[in-house]
Design goal:
The chain is α+β, with helices and mostly antiparallel strands. The protein folds into two domains: 32-37 and 98-212, 2-Layer Sandwich (Phosphorylase Kinase, domain 1), CATH 3.30.200.20; 217-410, Orthogonal Bundle (Transferase(Phosphotransferase), domain 1), CATH 1.10.510.10. Helices cover 28% and strands 17% of the residues. Helix 4 runs antiparallel to helix 6 and helix 6 packs across helix 8 (356-365). It catalyses: L-seryl-[protein] + ATP = O-phospho-L-seryl-[protein] + ADP + H(+); L-threonyl-[protein] + ATP = O-phospho-L-threonyl-[protein] + ADP + H(+); L-tyrosyl-[protein] + ATP = O-phospho-L-tyrosyl-[protein] + ADP + H(+). Residues 24-35 have a biased composition (Polar residues).
Amino acid sequence: MNGPVTGGMSTPPPTRRSVLPPMSRSTLPPMTNNGMAPGGCMGSPRPPLPGQGLRRPNAPHLGGNRPTTGRMNNKKPGLNLAQLGLAPKPEQTPFANFSKYVDPSGKLNFAGKAIIHADGVDFSNGSSFTIKMDDLKLLEELGKGQYGTVQKVYHRVTNVVMAMKEIRLELDETKLHQILMELDILHKSTSDYIVEFYGAFFIESCVYYCMEYMDVGSLDKVYGSGVPEDVLAKITTSMVKGLKFLKDELSIIHRDVKPTNVLVNSKGQVKLCDFGVSGQLDRSLAKTNIGCQSYMAPERIRAANTYTVSSDVWSLGLSLVEMAGGKYPYKYDNMFAQLKAIVDEEPPTLPDHFSEESRDFIAACLHKDAEKRPTYAQLLEHPFIQKYKDVDVDMAKWANEAHAARLAAKQ
């Protein structure tokens, strides 16, 4: 989702497995105290289960005995639709696709890769994360995205404040795939530059998963009029290391790199999030074109079905220019003109007061020829990164001051 996962008054433990101890299974929580309709998504009515309530009230009776009058009384009943081979096939019913994933016990099964239930999630690699709604106290809504909402919650068992993403299931294979993709990446990520994953659970028509609560928020909300060069260098380092981890360890391209999907906390830590549209690498090529159009690389706009690792490098460079200048660098009245500018015009640059090293770093990321953009390993060795590698930049101070400035501006 695009909305920021912000967070935290409490910081989760540094261990890479779930902080949550095993808990006994329980029945589906009523959740009436948390503003949730019993057995459904928060504040929403319970949807019908597969096979229930699908017959229209005035639908004709198509088979079996029924009263007849007149001359028809002495005739055999006519053939019904099923006998004629015209009956609707099961997969054509609204809940057919849904039933492939949700079994009668109420578990959400992703083709054996992950099983999500009311008490947690079990992955096929043996990893399990136990968490349930009864143990969570809803604190406040943090944001809304394309597919659901993000809530700030308190986990009573561990005294940890978390960010809980709620995703309402629909009869959409794409959404189900995105849920599995994000859960798969989060539970496998053992990187300081990826948000921590605490667990997930499923209640009827909603999937919930709990993540690290980043209390300052997403970078698009706190860069203000622009971040200074030393802070930009530290942000860049964290982003590159996070993207490099996804590629090297999980063979994943993020595909939606932008300031909205980069979070910061009051300690000054910077981490990537939102992996719903990430793609599995196929010889460094992801064969789908998903993500925010404003941060698309030129080659993605020209050929919609191609996406390489270097496309994320372009998105990285464009995001850094935005954070340094305090605004998105392309300004046009419509999306068509904006995309045309990305393809045809010279790439944007950093403000004049930035160093030559930083400007060269951006120029390398925003090279129009994708094959000439550097790899993540090369970016980490770039003079811009090396210049600030051993410099003690007070990221916590910057993060808290930026957060305070944002709050003051809202008042």
